C-alpha cells in the first residue's frame, strides 16, 4: 500500500467556499484549488473545471487526494461508480463550505483520517472520524509513515479487527510512530506487530510492516533483460520482502548504464553508485564500502553478483554511495523570471552546485544554504566547463548558468568542447557518464525583437562582434556577406571598453550595402530593471548609443517601422519578400 503523498485538489463550486479553500490550501504544500468555470473567478482558482462529477472522477482515478468543499452526498454520488478497489483509493474528504465540518469519506488507509485531523486543526473543528480502529487507538495502525509499507492490507484489516475484539499485541522491531498510540499491549500477547525487512510468512497472528531499508548491490556482471525480476527473485530467496527494497547500488564504472536506470525505475527505488571504482567490485564489498549505517548483510554467497544488506530503519538513499552526477547547462533568458523556462528553474532548484559568470549567477539566485555557488572560481570558460564535469562526475548536481540561451555565445558549446577534448584522458568515462542536459532559453535577440515587434520575421543571422575568440577579418567577411544577402542582423557583444572601434568599422561595412533609412533596433538590458528600447536608422545610429549590454538589430531592406493609433511604435519584417 502506497501512502498518499501527492498534494490534494481542493474542489469548490461557489465563491462562498473560496475563503475556506484558501485556509485548507495552506495546510498542504502544493495543494491546488479547482474552481467551477463560470462561477469561480479565474484569480481564485488554480485549475478550472466544467463538470463536477467528471472532474471528481478524473481526480479519483488518477489517485489525487480530493478535498471537496460541498455536501458529502454530492461527492459520494460523483465517485460512486469507481468504488470497487478499496486498496488503492486516494483520500476523499468533504468539508463544509463555511469550514464548520470535516468528513473523511474514503481512503482511510491512504491518509484520509490524518488529513482530516490536519484540516480540522487548521479550521478549529473536530474532524468527523468514523474508523473504529482509529477511534479506539488514536491512529491508523494500517497507515504507517513514509518509509514503511504494510505486507498485506487484508491481513492488516483482520489484525485490527482482532485488536478491536479484545486481543493484545506485542511489537517486535522499531515502530517509533506507535509509541504514542493507545494499543492494547502485552509482552506475552499472541498477536505481534513485526517491523522487519523479512517477508511475511503468511501467519495470521501478526501484522508485518516493512521498513524501506534494503540495499541491493549488483556488480559488473548483473545486467540484461529481466534484471528487476532477477533481483526480486534473489530477495525472495533470502527471505527478504520486496517492499523493503530502498536502493539499488552499482559500481561507479556502471554510472549512466541505461539497464540500471530502467531497473531502478521499474522497482521504484533509488539508484546509487559506489564512490570510486576501487571501492571493490564484488557486490558484498560494495555494500560494506558504501553503507554507512549499521546493517545486516544478507549475502547468499560471498562472490554472488548480487548482495543485499538491510539497515535497521528506513534508509535515506542519499546516505548510500553517491548519485549519478548531473550537469544542466541552462539559459536564464534575458533577465525577467517570467522569461525563464520552467525546465531551467527546475534545474536550478535541483542543483547542489551552481556555476557561471558571477553576474548571471546573481541573476539566477537567491539560492538555498545547502547549494554551493561557484561564482568567481573560474573566469575562463573552458576551465569553468571542466570544473563543472569534475563536480558532476563526483555525483554532484551542477547547474551551469548563462544568460539568454546557453547555446548562443555562451557556455553550452564550451561544455561540449571540454567533454570532446577529454576523449583521450582517463576521466573521459566518468565525464561521459554524467547526465548532461542543455536547457534552452530566450536569447537576447528574441527578447529584444519581441519588445520591438517582429524584426526577425524573415531570414536573419546572428553575429558576435567580439574579436576575442575569432579574428576580426572573419567578422568583416561575414558582415559583408550578410549585408549583401540582405539578412536582418542581430549583433551580440557589439562593443566594450576593450573593443572600442569595432562597431563603427562594422557599421561602415553594413552602410556599403544598406540604405541610410534602414530600420535599427537597440535593446538595452531587455527583461531587466531599467530596460530601454530604441528605434533608429542606420544613418542616425552612433556607437555612443550602444554598450556591451545592448542588442543591435539591423533591419533588411524590407524591415519597416510604423506607429499604431495611440502612438506605440512597432517594427517588423514582413513574411513575404518582394
Ligand atoms: N547567451 C546570451 C548571449 C551572450 S553574449 C543570449 O543568448 O542572450 C552577450 C551579449 O548579449 C551582450 O553583449 C548583449 O549584446 C546581448 N545581451 C545579453 N542580454 C541582453 C539583454 N538583457 N538585453 C540586451 N542585450 C543583451
UniProtKB/TrEMBL annotation:
Enzyme class: transferase
Transmembrane annotation, as ranges: none
GO annotation terms (biological process): cobalamin biosynthetic process; methylation
The Cobalamin synthesis G N-terminal domain, residue ranges: 55-133
Pfam families membership: CbiG_N, TP_methylase
Residue ranges annotated for the Tetrapyrrole methylase domain, each copy included: 326-541
Pathway the protein takes part in: Cofactor biosynthesis; adenosylcobalamin biosynthesis
Enzyme Commission identifier(s): 2.1.1.131
Keyword Nucleotide-binding attributed: no
Molecular functions per Gene Ontology: precorrin-3B C17-methyltransferase activity
Keyword annotations: Cobalamin biosynthesis, Methyltransferase, S-adenosyl-L-methionine, Transferase
Alphabetized PANTHER family for the sequence: COBALT-FACTOR III C(17)-METHYLTRANSFERASE-RELATED
Name used for this protein in its record: Precorrin-3B C(17)-methyltransferase
High-level lineage: Bacteria, Pseudomonadati, Pseudomonadota, Betaproteobacteria, Burkholderiales
